[in-house]
Amino acid sequence: MSIFVQRLSYWRRIFKVYFTKNKGYLSFWHETPAMSEEIAVNDIKGPYYMTFRDKADYGGPKDKDGVILFDYYFDIGRQYNPLAVAQYGLGHYNLYLKTGDKKYLEIAKIQADWLVKNLEKNDKGLAVWKHKFRWHYKQYLSPGWYSAHSQGTGISLLGRIYKETGEQKYLEAARQAFISMNVDIKDGGVKFTDNDGNIWLEEYIIDSPTHILNGFLWALWGVWDYCLLTGDKDALNLWNNCVKTLKENLPKYDAGFWSLYDLSKQFLKMIASPFYHDLHIVQLKIMHLISKEDIFDSYRTKFQGYKNNRIKRKFAFIYKAIFKIFYF
C-alpha cells in the first residue's frame, strides 16, 4: 500500500470518528477518566485503579463469545484489540466488586479467557498479545505489533481473575506475559534503557522510543499488580527502577502551560489532548497513592492548575490543532 493511500485511509478514519455521529471505538478510548473508590494498593483482589465505567458500557460489536471488537472502518475493518479486551474486562470486574452481581464477573472472565487463548510468541520467542492490524503512530506499525500497555493491562486483568477463581491458567498466562516486560526491546521485549540508565516501558515499539506517559503508567500498574500477585523480586526491582525513571523525568512532561503526551523529538512538542491531560491528572493521583512519592502529587496539582486556567486551556487547544496539521 502506497504512503498516499495509507495517509488517505488515516484521514478518512479520523473524519469518520471525529466529525460524524458514529464515534465507534473512539468513544471507548475517550471515556471520562475516573479513579476507583477505596483503592486497595496492596491487594490485587481489590478494584482496578481506574473505574473504566464508561468502557464497561461500550455498545459496539462483539464476537459470538462476547469478546469486544472494534470497527476501525475502511481498510482495517473489525478487529480484536488486546488492550481494549483487557480494559473492558477490568471495567466489568470493578462492577462485579461494586454490585456483587456475578454476571459482571462472567463478562470479565470471557475477556480474560480470550487473553489466555491469544497470548502468542513473537519472533524472539516471548509471549505477547499481538495487534493484528496495521496502525499509525509516528510511523506505520505492521500487523503483529505489541505494546507494554497491552502487556501490563492484560496482566492486571488476569491477576484479578486468578485471585477470584483460583484457575491456574490465568496465573500462568500472567507469568508468561510478564516476561516481556523485563526484556529489552532489541531482544523482543517492551523495556527500553536510555543512555542515562533510565528504564522505560514503551507503548509503541518504534526506532526512536518516545516514552508515552499514559501508556508507561498503565503498563507500570501491571508490573505492580504482578508484584502483588506473585511477590516476584524481579518485578519489584522493575517497579522501583521505573518509578525512579518517572521521578527523574516527570519535569520533562511539563510544557509550562499543559502536559506533554510523549517525549518525541520534533520542532513542536507533542502536548496532550484535553482527554489525555485529564487522564494524566488521574494517573498521577493514583501513582502517588501507590508509590507514596510526593512528586506525583506535585505534578498532578500543577497539571490541574493548567486545566483550571482558561487562557492556558485555550492555548493548549490551538497548539494541539497546529501540531495535528503539521505532523499527522
Automatic annotation (TrEMBL):
Residues 126-304 form the D-glucuronyl C5-epimerase C-terminal domain. It comes from the Bacteria. GO terms for molecular function: heparosan-N-sulfate-glucuronate 5-epimerase activity. Gene3D superfamilies: 1.50.10.20. This is D-glucuronyl C5-epimerase. It comes from Candidatus Wolfebacteria bacterium GW2011_GWB1_41_12. InterPro entries: 6-hairpin_glycosidase_sf, C5-epim_C, C5-epimerase. One of its GO terms (biological process) is heparan sulfate proteoglycan biosynthetic process.
